[in-house]
Amino acid sequence: METKKTKFGFTIVELLTVMAIIALLLTILAPALRMVRRIAKDTAQRAQFHSIDVALETYSGETEQYPDSTIRPSVGGDPTTSTAPFTVGAHHLAEALLGRDMLGFDPWTTWDAKADDLSHDIYAAKPPSPKNSNDAEVVKSLDRRKGPYLSPDSVEAYQIAQLYTDTAVGTGDVYPGNLSNTGVINNIYSPAPVLTDSYRVKAVSLPNGRQVKAGSPILYYRANISSRVFENGTTMPSGVTDVCSVAGIYNSFDNEELLALGTVADQSKMHNFNKDEGGALAGRTKFYDMITNPTITTQVRPFNQTSYILMSAGFDGIFGTPDDVYNFKN
Questions:
Q1: pLDDT tens across 150-190, in order?
Q2: What does the domain layout of the chain look like in residue ranges?
Q3: pTM for the predicted model, two decimal places
Q4: Is the per-residue pLDDT at 88 higher than 80?
Q5: How far apart are the first and last CA of the chain?
């Protein structure tokens, strides 16, 4: 008597059916998973801003003011009349909370990394050996330090030349810092980092050869509390066509040279806050529109008009789009 053989496995029809169901589920779930990932990144960014807020309040408590954000060197708020490379508001934020060398803030700073780099006693310590300084000056600098107000072990801070290619900063518009995009120490410059956000969009190299993911620079603007003027990007001072009034509560120039470098992930892409994006200084108009507080209807006023504004480029890495994250509710 012949024994009936039992068949194991799936038929081709069954396999195709299962694969079709899996593909359908992936199609349905993929947008949801991307949304969850984006929400997690947004939450992490707001948590980072909270930590920076606490650090800035501690800094303010010790120094009786928030860090300066004015672009340096500048004449009347207009870097086009000055000599590059410029230290921008994003640099100032990292310097105040960490120090340029991550060893604390030196109150003798001029906020101008280029000028202090040549000084004998301001941020004298410079790897691999102090430049234009002796050991006594290094000790004096370290003794003056305050902070750091953020932990150097947990903060995400990188040099501009790490975030952008050498060709992008080669024109000298923005102070590059002491590390190249390959992690090599550049002894021409001292360190001057910027804090970066939680949306890690680019691989950068460290001096030890390790590669890590870095986000976009966090922009910092300090309010001019003595001003009652709010520039909206279209009502420029009489006879001036290419600068924002430094009398305004916030000055778009504070980080404008950094915005001109493009996005960190793709430098061919421009930020919507770039002054010439859209023509006729339209980028500045978008900047002022974004920080306008709509609940104040009697006059045009910004959010945080007595303190400061922090900006992250958000998930897409482009400043001036709806996914930007601020330290105010917009």
A1: 998 888 999 999 999 854 444 458 999 888 888 888 877 88
A2: 48-222+304-326
A3: 0.83
A4: yes
A5: 82
